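Regression check, fe (ii) ion case 364:
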Amino acid sequence: MTTAFDWESIQKTALLRDELPGELAPFALSSGEGLRHHLGDWHVTTMARHADTGGEFSLYRIALPGGSNSPFLSVPGHSFVHVVEGEVTVTFDGRSHRLIGGDSGSIPAGTRFSIAGGAAFNSLFLYSTEDWLHRLAGDAGEETGAHIFSRRPASSVSALLRSELVDGYGVTIHDGSDISSGASSSDGSSVGGTAATRPGNHLPDGEVPFVNAAGHGDRYETFEQMNTYPVRARNTGGRFFAMDTRGAKTPYIPLHFHQEHSENFLCLGGRVRLHANGEEVVLAPGDFLHAPAGTIHSFSLAANNTHMLGLLTPPVFEPFFEYMNDPTEEYVHVEGGEPHFPAAGFAKAQAELDLVVVGPPPES
Ligand SMILES: [Fe+2]
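Current build output:
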């Protein structure tokens, strides 16, 4: 898929901070910034909409209390979830999966699934190729200045989603009786079936729903850094892939841009230092930066044990991490040894992939 937007004009667009641009532009959000709504007992922070990404994706932080339990629903577009904290039970295909911090899930369009919160406090990031949750939260939810769910919500998300208010968003609510073994109770265990299980540890070949345990996925390592695909283009119908990066402090990579694909950075731990169209931004956990195609950028891992997640779409850049890294079955990077920049892999990426280098690594 090629996108029609003008990457040359994006290079002249200043980075916007702490607000959504409403048009395709590079922007950064501090943790908690974005559009905030109570949606039943969920707290939804919209961090990117189609209006901000040229229709490529939307991104949300969802916080939900223990006992929150959605009905079975199916939604438009491909969804990818990354659990940050607590215990989130995701049920599909008659099985309940207990997800904890670092676990993820890939949910193709039309999959019947439910989400339940099992700990006192649960939060996750949800990426979607569609805009349904932003539109639903804006119309059926209650705008709020708060950054956390209400102590005493007006309704549960289940009651709200089952109301006529949600008609017209492409969301279908299913009676749970047709998936009796998968219905989950408020404590996160399943009703009438086997207990919720921990996720598996390998990515399937096709576009099927799956969950992936923290640290698992297709793993590649380079000097003091582990790069893991928790979902790949083959799992998303060619819409996107995600990259989960953990590592020690690393210097900036060369300044570069992409002509076809957008890239973004969600800090999950440590600090990520970024350059975007000439401005420097340091991301702390929960902070986000979106770099649409054209944005001149570079990043570095600026703290020990830095952890970040990125969604790259369209997924033309997927081979980059294989060119720049070595496959591994390990879970953690190794610290120490001689610093090593994989110059051969970088040259191959420049020759073959959507990568235009415009300068040396920026001064930090
Ligand atoms: Fe890049």
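Comparison notes: The chain has six helices and 27 strands. Helices lie at 7-11, 50-53, 132-140, 157-162, 320-324, 343-352. No diff flagged against the previous build.
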